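Incident log, structure service

09:12 report received: a user says their structure output differs between two submissions of the same chain.
09:20 pulled the input from the user's history:
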Amino acid sequence: MPRTTPLSGALLLALAALPAAAQQSASDAAAAPATSLDAVIVTGTRVSDRTVAESTAPIDIITPEALDATGTTELATALSRALPSLNFPRPAITDATDAIRPAQLRGLAPDQVLVLVNGKRRHTTSLINLNDSIGRGSSPVDLNAIPIAAIERVEVLRDGASAQYGSDAIAGVINVVLKGSGSGGGLSGRYGQYSAGDGEQYQLAGDAGFKLGENGALHLAAQAGHQDNTNRARPYLGPVTPTSNPPGRVLHRYGDPEVDDAAASYNAHWAPREGLEFYSFGTFSRRRAISNGYYRAPGNPNNIPAIYPDGFLPQIDNHSDDRAFVLGLRGRTAGGWNVDLSYNRGQNRLDFDVRHSLNRTLGAASPRSFHIGRLQTTQDVLNADVDRSFDVAWLPYPLTLAFGAEWRGERFAQSAGEPASYATGPEPGAPGAQVFPGFRPGDASDRDRNSHAFYADLEADVTDKLSLGLAGRYEQYSDFGETTSGKLSARYAFTDRVALRGTVSTGFRAPSLQQQFYQSTQTVIVLGDPTPYEIRTFAVDDPAAVALGAEPLKPEKSTNLGLGLVLQPVDALYVTVDAYQIDIDDRIILSENLRGPAVEDFLTERGYPSITGGRYFTNAVDTRTRGIDIVGSYRWELGGGALNLTAGYNHNKTTLERVAPNPAALEAVADRYDIVLNRIGRVERGRITQGAPRDKFFLGGTWTTGPWRLDATATRYGEFHTFNDDPSGARDQTFGAKWTLDLAASYALDGWSFTLGADNVLDEYPDEAIYANSESGQLPYSSYAPFGFNGAFAYAKVGYRW
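09:34 re-ran on a clean worker, output below:
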């Protein structure tokens, strides 16, 4: 791979020269820092005028300026660069996970963070991440389905909040607030490319506000773009055999997928009279992503030379349709109660197609392209929320009481693919489409459940210095029963510049319908082992899974402790320091791939021929996560302009407190065949505890002077580890810490803005994988790398706002 960076090097020189050319007049208004302690928040509190500084729990405000300064078109990527506790790696050759990548908050699972839009629960994706990537086994929200052009701000609550919002809010809450003004807007265009010469990207985006009569507004936003694939694969370096890949040529494709995407949103409100307002908002997105499997050599037993004489690279063609719609009304009663009634519907549909492939058992008549099947999730939510502030004789300030109810219906549907995608024909070989066999009719299902919840919340400033909060929530699910959560929070201001805050809470996460009922067979390559395995993911109630030890899933239960300081040592300098501990019992994870000849025989006896392994979801571990977040911001008048500095640091460590022993049914299988089977092995243990960096630090600055704006952010990603199922640990690897540098310069003129920038301008790459883990040198980087492995990316943007 070329390591020279002519594109990023030229950009660095240009940026270095800009300050000398900048006008020296003072800026009328500097860009807001990424976190402002004076900003009013709506997440984590029912009080109408609570600010970040007054919050009893840590919360970050990410502004549109901060999102724009990251240089990316993906919301999840932008948040990972603005938040020290968010991890968003870029896995490759992981099937549909390439297209819908998961993000982690505080090192926990991607589905242990709750996502809201305008304070309303967002639906999850229908995808379940099954391959060797961070977030294995999760079905999180697709953050990148929300257009950045629509966002007014993002509020990130870094604290357990199940007592306030329900399931999933163990690690915290991400609340995306949409633009809602009835005027103004803008258009922008963006073009970029990696310094290696691939990954070309372009995007158009815009938003506009309109008045709806005298007392209403509608704000629209949309964006559309294209991304070419990147490739950091290398030639085959292993021994040449009749079945090996040919040497000297790059045959794999290892990097970002090819993506076409479009997204739109609206946010509307209208008040027919004072004290009554109707509102509605929604988002709609469509994404097509073409990701890659493993190259099949000409002599591979699953190739048909008459079809592919030079071998073939199968590709997965995913189409994701994501839509959400909320309709509600809010108002104030004659008695002073604030009432909010809403209906919320969200849906994600994911179609799987495979191209440049074949079904070996169908022989030369095999199709080259297949429809593999479809996954779909639907969520319907009804909410009634009520709150009011009361004057209480023994309190100097009003007491805020909030209570409400929620009904939620969830549905997961899995549809079969076309017959040729899963058929077993007369010829030898692995049945079904190569890279991803189709969903069989027996895999298809349509499952649903419902839940209802009731909550109550009290908040009050007990004295001039002490604020207290108490919340409780009861939920009952139709599939596994009931659960109760509680939260106690407090904040004490020693002075105007020093405050102590803390929270104690319990929480839960209900097992998703995907984790309970998804089932399919996939071709899996194990790290360091070139043998392809046909691994079946079993629903937990499948008789074969039960015979291997599967049990009905229970909800995860958590206990969160948080303690923090809010400091303002001098004017314009704000610092928050928050320590936390999160204990999770009965954590839901995907078991190891139980494989080998004995397992193959076992599955054949139960009606699954040609399957070489199996896995299922299980509540098999308890974990403890401890960490600290430090976030600071400082504004400095400098050089005829203003410099806003933001720094963030996160240290995070997860340990396994309990690993349940193998169930009796699995031990019976192991004894019968005289083999060793581990439901939870060293690979999954290592992924949970050391797969993500334990440390992350960034320092960012924005200098505005006259029409110029200069942005620079340096980020340090700590070391991470990968593990292999070899008990000797010989193929385990530690990847060292790395620094990246992002730079951008913007010039404003009469509503226009012109930006030139680069991410990872110094062209940093993660450490290379050892040979034993690189598929004979072909895949040189780990998919766990927290900043990816594409190198420097340069871009230009032009925008106009009115």
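09:41 both user submissions now match this output. Likely a transient worker issue. Closing.
09:42 reviewer note: The longest helix spans residues 6-21. Residues 1-35 have pLDDT under 50 and may be disordered.
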